[in-house]
Amino acid sequence: AFVLRAINNHFSENGFERNSLSFRKMVSVEDESFLLEFWIPYNRGSTESTVEQEEMTITHCHGAILVYDISSRKSLDYVAALYRKILLLRDPLKLPTIIVGTKKDLNVTRQVSQEEGQEIATNLGNLIHFEVSAKTGDLVLDAVVEITRQMKDFEYPLQPEPKVIPKKKKKKTSRTCCVY
User: Fold this and answer.
1) Phi and psi at residue 30, in whole multiples of 5°?
2) Domain coordinates in residue numbering, the chain
3) pTM to 2 decimals?
4) Nearest one of 80, 149, 63 to 121, comparing CA atoms
5) Through-space distance between the first and last CA atoms of the chain, rounded to whole angstroms
6) CB–CB of 39/178 below 8 Å?
7) Molecular function (GO) terms listed (predicted)?
8) Which of 4, 8, 38, 129 has a CB 3.0–4.6 Å from the CB of 121, allowing a cystine?
9) What is the DSSP string of 122-133?
10) Which CATH number does 2-179 carry?
């Protein structure tokens, strides 16, 4: 739902078609326009192909938005574990990353306080933390603009240098942002 709202300002309770793993959006930051490509892992799981896909996504993206659900403590734990995995594959100083808590509009079912989300973001590496509502659109664009700003301000080669050497692929020249 976060990606749908970010890409086309639309909310759907059903999310999006799972065969759509990549979305694009033009984002303006400081009078410059950037074409962002959002990669979304197809399935959170532990099969060999899923793990391989996740590692390829991490090693080839230019920024990461780690998304958790404020009504699910388990999802915050997943984000923390995923960031630790990112640290094994990438130099954290070379991958702009933010953490986003979704479902801000569902305060009644909250399991993760805003302070806890911020604390995790701080403990993981002074990451910027947002709480957003895909349903109302509150702060979704702010989060996308922030990751775009971080990627804009970051000096890196067009293809990030991974710690793990993946299988040979053609070089990509578009800016990509992983959304987990």
Assistant:
1) 50, 55
2) 2-179
3) 0.79
4) 80
5) 12
6) yes
7) GTP binding; GTPase activity
8) 129
9) HHHHS-EEEE--
10) 3.40.50.300
